[in-house]
Amino acid sequence: RKRCFRISTGSKQWDSILNEGFQSCSINEVYGEFRCGKTQLSHTMAVIAQLPKEKGGAEGRVAVIDTEGTWRPERIVQISERFGIDSNAANENILYVRAENSEDQHEQLCGLAEPFASGQYRLLIIDSIMTHFRNDFHGRGELNERQGKLGQHLRKLSQMAEEFNITVLIINQVQSDPGASALFASADGRKPIGGHVLAHASTTRILLRKGRGEERVAKVIDSPDCAEKEATYIITTGGIND
Ligand code: GTP
Ligand code: MG
Questions:
Q1: Ligand 1: which atom is nearest the Cα of residue 34?
Q2: For a Cys-Cys bond, which of 43, 122, 144, 242 suits 58, CB 3.0-4.6 Å?
């Protein structure tokens, strides 16, 4: 595992619970309720990945698979300013693809093997992993088929992470069950979707939640080499910060 590296989140406290960032050659999953900063983390790391190693980066290009239409090049401009890098170059170093449905998402992923073969890419972001899989398959009747297709997608993802020495960041949502009683609402609201198939594929899982005021909290849920610690962070114009 000598060649593996880590990419910073933009927050020193968050990095500290991850042994200095999200690791390459593996799938890192960040999940949590809306407005916790999942998409902001994606933008921040897309800039940091391009920075030199001493600044938490990996001096590499970035690929983004967007399923929700929430990617904003203007945010990359603002975050680049914080880190003092050329914002046009930063956007040019990001290969953006929009996935229209789950099948397209898988095809787009397979299509990235070609640019990744250049050896220049160090980060792949999928925001978010389950949107289409959730929309394209309905009810219990199609659950097996969905999980089968999802498993295939995730196997490809982890194989590519290893082969090309890339940090994979996947964004996920939490279960929302309006039928659940208020008593269990908070517990139910903190389970990621995707079932065992996704749980098995993710090497490291991070739960995000809102804290006091503007504060947000990241918690390590499942990791082979990090304790289940919490860290606070904030969302700024320059991205994720302390
Ligand atoms: P969903 O995709 O809806 O599940 O949410 P998310 O977790 O992806 O949330 P997102 O990353 O979009 O974070 C939204 C939060 O970021 C909001 O509270 C915004 O106010 C904040 N935010 C977005 N852009 C900026 C910015 O330029 N400056 C500051 N200070 N905050 C921002
Ligand atoms: Mg989002």
A1: 4
A2: 122
